[in-house]
């Protein structure tokens, strides 16, 4: 599943990235590994990158600290944001401004005049780029909605004198070699529902929740009053469907995914940092 507008946007983005000075890479704080584009490093060709993990409100403090330490060990300082509430935006603005100052200082050292520094904001669909950009610009120029594929074209705007911003549609890899990553995107609503089977994805979520120390079978049992301890994800969905949805497994699966996305099981990351 690779919508035509994303294929075109990828071609356009690669051309525009040749012109930018700084890349702000947005990822979903719940799944930082799965929302890292495998080709981005190749596209940006060594340009300065600012890594942003959005939706910090949807993970725990322990998750945040673990991921901050991991990226710091990779010499990739990370900024955590909540685009809906504006948290972290000031820090992001300062970081982008600092990079812009450094770039123009180097230009002056070479006898060149300062110019506007071009910043591109890139990331997967539905991870909050539009909300972040509206906050950076202090005005609404991007439609923000809780579904993938809202932004359909590249668009330049000015944050302030000396800093220009490029917004891009969400860009997915042409194909997912890691199907587990694709399922995490589906769980977090970072790809369109037409690209996956709801019951299959929800069954994987059940299994994942049961393994997570921050969740466990108890959060499912408490929520649906159906014991989740000793059954597979698929069988658990069937039990919930029989108890609450007249046997409709898809309806049970849809409810379970919505409950996760709304924090009904608590707030925590689905991924832990890779072991060193």
UniProtKB/TrEMBL annotation:
GO cellular component: mitochondrion
Record's keyword annotation contains Cell wall biogenesis/degradation: no
Entries under InterPro entries matching the protein: GTP-bd, GTP-bd_ortho_bundle_sf, GTP-bd_ribosome_bgen, GTPase_MTG1, P-loop_NTPase
Binding site for GTP: 54-57, 126-131, 170
Signal peptide (from-to): none
Gene3D superfamilies: 1.10.1580.10, P-loop containing nucleotide triphosphate hydrolases
UniProt KW keywords: GTP-binding, Nucleotide-binding
Xref: PANTHER family: DAR GTPASE 3, CHLOROPLASTIC, MITOCHONDRIAL RIBOSOME-ASSOCIATED GTPASE 1
Cross-referenced NCBIfam families: GTPase_YlqF (TIGR03596)
Protein name: G domain-containing protein
Organism in which the protein naturally occurs: Selaginella moellendorffii (Spikemoss)
